[in-house]
Write a structure and sequence with these properties.
Largest interface: A-B, 73 and 65 residues
Number of strands of chain B: 21
Mean pLDDT of chain B: 89
CATH topology of the largest domain in chain B: Thrombin, subunit H
Largest sheet of chain B: 7 strands, antiparallel
Shape of chain B: globular
Strand order of the largest sheet of chain B: 8-7-19-20-21-18-9
Radius of gyration of chain A: 22 Å
Oligomer: heterodimer
CATH architecture of the largest domain in chain B: Beta Barrel
Largest sheet of chain A: 6 strands, antiparallel, barrel
Strand content of chain B: 25-35%
Distance between the termini of chain B: 78 Å
Helix content of chain B: 10-25%
Helix content of chain A: 10-25%
Radius of gyration of chain B: 23 Å
Order of helices and strands of chain B: HHHEEEEEEEEEEEEHEEHEEEHEEEEH
Low-confidence stretches of chain B: 1-18
Order of helices and strands of chain A: EHHEEEHEEEEEEEEEHHEEEHEEHEE
Number of strands of chain A: 20
Mean pLDDT of chain A: 84
Number of helices of chain B: 7
Structural class of chain B: alpha+beta
Structural class of chain A: alpha+beta
Strand order of the largest sheet of chain A: 8-9-10-13-12-11
């Protein structure tokens, strides 16, 4: 069985939509039966957006292959994949949509999530660029999307290669779509039908529906570190909050603390084994995963208010979230 | 209890957002049954204009009906011997086939199902020129059992050819006992498919005795992708004879190490086309020869090559139809495929 492959392209070297469409116009119902007019609406969005989007998509020549990227600011900031950038401070050749060759330098990268930033060297040029979608949770399964990139490397006669498909799955750091990707696509953009970047092509599995993209979450979480050319290897840096509790599955749907880690934010806040978590910052916590996500959604250093049940007593506890310790590296 | 707690700490790192919708079921995906509902009104006609070409019990390619009296087109390099083949379609219908005209340039062959009338043929009336980047397209798959959708995914263009290859790297020195020793095999190449391995010694190619490696390249370079060549080789003292179908050289060189690995299979001939429409429909190499239609059900071309995981080429109708149509008309008068 083949496992997970990075699409290191690595082929040995051989939104500014005019007439803005509202979300309701462009997004046919995510699930349920699709109608012909739904498909034609998707087509209209794609064809309207493509001339603009493609100008921001670039091919990147790495030391041993070719990959893709997307320009997201007028001064030439590029989003790509960490396995394309490999390390900060590396200068690479970048090919624009019209075939013009320019240079860019890698900034920071998140090796865990496969996210990286690059900067085009020439900053007195107004670079063609696209917008990034800041509403990460809207990239839900069923949403139509557009993948662009340079599979196999830049080819002027062919042009950028378009794929249209749907988001199949969303996880904390990634999106899976049925837009087929291959070597050379790595680092290229996934767009929603508003023409905003929602993902960066990262890797594929064997099946045609197994195309993985870095979501915007790792980029936003570590934006400043990435811009300052930091390497993020584990989620301790800019990774969101850490409380230091192990949660057991108690009877019913209670979130019961099974373990308190030594010198963790939880132990410092006086939380105890067998406490049951009822609410976080006033928000009821119905499931373990929702609680975990609520903690992770807050940056380290945030003070949270937990409502706990201890025995028959209900109490409020304040805790200051820390960073994920290194030994939990996964 | 402790084990469970540790397990959850690990899970911590990998949980998805609680508010996220569940993953799409196969039916909800782009080529799932719920999405394909959109093309239901043209699905029947899309499926009916396809048939499968068989040699014994093996599928060679897909055919597109181009005349109600049994005329069809299919991919020439995948269907080398139409006279020995059979065509099957619909609900277990089947017929013998006769070959009428083979075009190496277009990689298409015109044939006729013997004694067949009333099939659902396509009409290449509409101009494919109007089809643009991002436009939805549809094709039958599995010989007309299902349909698939996708978009035109790149600029229309010519695809250059660089001849054929077998996919072996050879020892440049003469081998003891004669012949040419293989030192490397390209992944997914004709050589790999034929079971050749490093250390096998090629002793005869296309009927010619081999003594130097350059000659192997010369013999193969003069041939077309899809052509069969006779190969005789020596392995552990035994002499084995096989037939190998050559493939496009460009593809073999690019994919020597299997760089394009999860492609679901590719066509033997993937280049040397005067013009192609590239699309992202999830098709199989055996679907080549099937029609490509727009969402109004107009046939705009024929799928001609599965190239890699993201690429399928179709020949636009205006590229080949003006050449094939007069040949078909001429063949009709007088009718030749009478009841056998």
């Amino acid at each position: 069985m083949r496992r997970r492959f990075t699409i290191a392209l690595i082929i040995a070297c051989t939104g500014f939509l005019s007439g803005r469409l509202t979300a309701a116009d462009v997004l046919p119902q995510a699930t349920g039966r699709t109608s012909l007019s739904d498909l034609l609406k998707v087509q209209q969005s794609v064809q309207t957006l493509l001339p603009k989007l493609r100008t921001a998509v670039v091919a990147i020549q790495t030391h041993d292959g070719t990959a893709s990227g997307v320009i997201i600011t007028e001064d030439g900031l590029i989003l790509t994949a960490a396995h394309v950038a490999e390390k900060p401070g590396r200068e690479m050749r970048v090919i624009l949509d019209d075939g013009k060759v320019v240079k860019a330098t890698t900034l920071g990268l998140d090796k865990t999530a496969d996210a990286a930033l690059m900067q085009l060297n020439d900053n007195d040029v107004k670079w063609p660029h696209v917008k990034v979608c800041r509403e990460i949770t809207k990239a839900q399964p069923g949403v139509w999307c557009i993948a662009l990139g340079h599979p196999g490397g830049f080819d002027k006669q062919r042009g950028v290669v378009l794929r249209v498909g749907k988001i199949v799955k969303q996880t904390a750091n990634s999106l899976q779509t049925d837009c087929v990707l291959m070597g050379g696509d790595s680092g290229g953009p996934l767009f929603n039908l508003a023409g905003e970047v929602i993902g960066i092509h990262s890797q594929i599995w064997e099946d045609r529906d197994q195309n993985m993209h870095v979501s915007m979450a790792p980029f936003f979480r570590s934006w400043d570190d990435l811009k300052m050319s930091q390497i993020i290897r584990v989620w301790s840096t800019g990774s969101g909050g850490y409380l230091g509790v192990g949660l057991g599955l108690s009877d019913g749907i209670e979130i019961k603390i099974a373990l308190i880690k030594k010198s963790s934010p939880a132990s410092q806040a006086g939380m105890m084994q067998d406490d049951v978590i009822l609410a976080l910052d006033g928000e009821k916590m119905p499931s373990v995963s929702q609680f975990q996500n609520a903690v992770r959604a807050r940056p380290a250093g945030t003070q949270i208010l937990l409502q706990l049940k201890r025995g028959t007593e209900t109490l409020d506890v304040k805790a200051t979230l820390g960073s994920q310790p290194k030994e939990d590296e996964g | 209890m402790k084990l469970r707690a540790i397990l959850l700490i690990v899970l911590w790192i990998d949980t998805s957002h609680a508010e996220s919708r569940p993953p799409l079921t196969p039916g909800e995906r782009t080529n799932g049954i719920q999405t394909l509902n959109a093309v239901d009104s043209i699905a029947r006609q899309t499926k009916d204009c396809a048939a499968l070409i068989y040699l014994k019990d093996r599928v060679l390619s897909t055919a597109t009906w181009v005349g109600a009296d049994g005329y069809f087109l299919t991919k020439a390099s995948d269907a080398p011997m139409l006279e020995k083949a059979k065509i099957r379609w619909g609900d277990k219908k089947s017929a013998a086939t006769r070959e009428i005209y083979r075009s190496v340039v277009h990689d298409l062959v015109l044939g006729q199902a013997v004694g067949v009338t009333g099939v659902s043929a396509v009409t290449f009336g509409s101009k494919s020129n109007t089809v643009g980047y991002g436009q939805w397209l549809t094709s039958p798959t599995k010989g007309g059992k299902e349909v698939r959708i996708g978009v035109m995914s790149a600029q229309r263009r010519k695809i250059r050819g660089d001849g054929a290859a077998i996919g072996v790297r050879m020892d440049e020195k003469t081998t003891k006992g004669g012949g040419v020793r293989i030192v490397g095999i390209a992944e997914d190449s004709p050589a790999a498919a034929a079971g050749l391995r490093p250390e096998d010694v090629l002793i005869e190619l296309a009927g010619e005795n081999l003594s130097e490696f350059m000659r192997v390249n010369e013999i193969i370079h003069n041939r077309q992708p899809g052509e069969q060549v006779d190969v005789k080789y020596r392995r552990a003292g035994k002499i084995i004879s096989i037939q190998v179908r050559l493939a496009s050289r460009t593809k073999i060189l690019q994919n020597w190490e299997g760089e394009d690995f999860a492609n679901g299979g590719i066509s033997v001939r993937t280049d040397n086309f005067s013009q192609v429409i590239q699309h992202d429909l999830p098709l199989h190499p055996l679907d080549m020869g099937s029609p490509l239609l727009d969402l109004k059900g107009h046939a705009i071309g024929i799928n001609i090559a599965r190239v890699d995981r993201v690429t399928t080429f179709a020949l636009p109708a205006e590229v080949f139809w003006k050449e094939f149509q007069p040949i078909l008309e001429a063949d009709r008068h007088p009718p030749k495929a009478l009841k056998p």
